[in-house]
Amino acid sequence: MKILIVVPMPPQPAGGGAIPVLLDAQVAGLRERNEVTLVSAFGAEPGEAEAARRLRDSGLDVHFADRRQPPAARRRWRRRVRMASAWAGGTPWRAVWFADPGVQAILDRLARSHEFDVAVVEDSAMSGYRLPAGVPSLLTEHEVLRPRPVKWSPGGARRLPGWAFGELDWRKRPRFQRKAWHRFDRVLAFGRRDAAAIAELAPEVAARVRVSPFGLALPPASDPSREQPGSLLFVGNFTHQPNRDAALWLAREIMPALLARQPGARLRIVGSSPTSEILALASGAIEVIADAPSIDPYTEAAAVVVAPVRVGGGMRMKVLQALAAGKATVTSGRGSEGFDCFAEPPPLALADGAEGFATTIATLLAEPARRRELGARARSFAEAHYSPGAWAQRLQTLYEEAREGGGDG
Question: In this structure, are residues 299 and 322 in contact, taking their beta carbons and an 8 Å threshold?
Answer without folding.
Answer: yes
